[in-house]
Amino acid sequence: MAEHGGGGGCCPPMDLFRSEPMHLIQVIIPIESARLTVSYLGDIGLIQFKDLNVEKSPFQRTYAGQIKRCAELARKLRFFKDQMSKADIIPSGKPNTKAVLNLDDIEVNLGDLEAELTEMNANSEKLQRGYNELVEYKLVLQKAGEIFNVAQSSATAQHGESSSHHGEESLESPLLKDQVDQGKQVKLGFLTGLVPKEKAMAFERILFRATRGNVFLRQASVEEAVTDPNSGQKVQKSVFVVFFSGERAKNKILKICEAFGANRYPFPEDLSKQAQMIKEVSGRLSELKSTIDTGLSHRTNLLETIAKEYEQWNELVRKEKSIYHTLNMLSIDVTKKCLVAEGWSPIFATQQIQEALQQAAIDAKSQVGSIFQVLHTKEPPPTYFRTNKFTESFQTIVDAYGVARYQEANPGVYTVVTFPFLFAVMFGDWGHGICILLAALFLIFKEKKYSTQKLGDIMEMTFGGRYVIFLMALFSIYTGLIYNEFFSVPFELFSPSAYACRDDACSEATTIGLIKVGDTYPFGVDPVWHGSRSELPFLNSLKMKMSILLGVAQMNLGIVLSFFNALYFNNSVNVWFQFIPQMIFLNGLFGYLSVLIILKWITGSKADLYHVMIYMFLSPTDDLAENELFPNQKTVQLVLLLLSLIAVPWMLLPKPFILKAQHNRTHQGQSYEPLPGAEESLVERGRDSHGHDHEEFEFSEVFVHQLIHTIEFVLGAVSNTASYLRLWALSLAHSELSTVFYEKVLLLAFGYDNIIIRIVGILVFIFATVGVLLVMETLSAFLHALRLHWVEFQNKFYEGDGYKFAPFAFALLVYDDE
Which of 405, 425, 543, 719 is most buried, by CB atoms within 10 Å? Predict the structure, then answer.
């Protein structure tokens, strides 16, 4: 196992404080039990297999054929899912049978079902196309028949009229009059069909131009949209009848109909046959309709049968595919009788893995069992934290910055408390906190339902952080009680105010005239401060100093964690030349400032802390006069300033020289022979891993790195402390926004004796509170708390250059899309 030093005895064991101890294992598996062995290991889900066939392409690997076979089965299942989706059939969540399925049986079954379903779809499509054509044909017969009937009745009515009316023919008159010379009479042909209504005008113009006006066109609109036989889409259409003379004109018309997507249908010249044809078409339509309905019912039954087994088939195919993907990562022995697997696993899982190997050998009826052994390597193991649904979201916040290096101190342990607390410092209002708490409780109570559903991106992110939001809400209620703000309104919750008016003339909006008449308010800010002239100066001073205290405390926690890291990894250089000078520098300046703040609060002194800190650097020997908070303060300041100045070269200079001396001492007189009996692969792995013992020591690089680290810490001590003032700034912004919405919206609306204005005021107040304070301000405070953890806290100790433990586990397949 890759142990970096000793012990872990410096601190109590915690599941999240250090990642799980890992070791690199090797398993030699007989080829006849390989599939079953990998399947059992997938059920355990505690081995991260290494790819031992990196040099081979996917098509050159041993089980490429089986993966191709599984991919084909997955394609058929996707086809079934698509068909079920179109038929509004939802796959059953529970498998229909508990029988053990065989991939060969499923392959045969899916093949038969796909062929049957494909044939049904083809027949249904063919029948539906014929049905749609008959519907259109019936419409043509009806509409064209109406056109001919109108023309015939018009001709009968005009038969006896005089020739004086010939020049005033209406469009309804027949094309050939009795006066036409019989020798010159021309036989006209006609075509009928349907054309999309949106193309009807263009269709008419093109016909006129192509035939130079030698056609006669009549159109009749169809009231309802009809299903086009070619596209299957609902389209508004018009029935047309076009009369022409000659084959040449007919050919032009046919080409134009084809170009415009017009469907042509035959129409009997004998008007007496029209009624008979309509009757025949109606009969065929009813027959086709019953045939189509029967086919759809049979198809629905088939899809419902598939739906009952779909989840079970899908799960099995995905498992088989993942098993063969894993088998392709294993190297095959030269004898082709066994497979060699290597991978990382937690030490606590060793017994489970060995039991699974034994069980697989028994169930596969293998004569030889699998061989399990631990390999020793200098390669860094993956990082694995055992989290639950509560701690997982906090660990995700840390991992978003960077995955912890193997067994370094994990900030996730402290983030569970510090993250929601710093959020609440910026968001403190117990009314708003209750609103967020209700939303978080709703998500927690609905977690069984939502965890099995596909949610949108924002909803999924919110649901995943439900326990973070829950703690943020609880801490917001706590800090809101301290600030004494309920939607910006103060309440005397714990006792009456300690102040009262001196006389009746005392103004409500000022502290002038107030005298202390009772005990100090027991918890939080006295409600009398709110609305007074001194509210902003008092709260600004309180929150600014509180922000500095919280910031210095959290940065000190980060430096202390770097000390535990150094102890755990037996790195005494970091203890003496990183931890100690950093503690001296930070606390010699800002730790001292924190002590002065507390002393000022305790003593009630009027000392100017700005003046004290500025002149501690500019004129350290000057007398403090009225700014002195305790005896010998000037001497203490001189000592702290001197220690802080010494801490800078203490961090910078010794460490590079000590590392160089250690490197020279380690390699002096060493021969680079591998140990007897060491495997070649392990020797190579050792050379290719960290490489600290095999690379040349570049003193200049180490010195420059240490210089950058020192400058970063010195400047960061100032900038990071100032960065914590965002706690004060956002808390002030939240409080003032809340006050504005309450006073300038709600109270202003209730100042009018009008119910409509009051209702509008209430609605505006609710939407402004939810939109700005409960959504935008929550997001703003969340992001600022995130920055304080990632930058100000974690950069004191957290390397974050590890990689996550990604085991082969069937349980994780549920969350992967095909």
Answer: 425
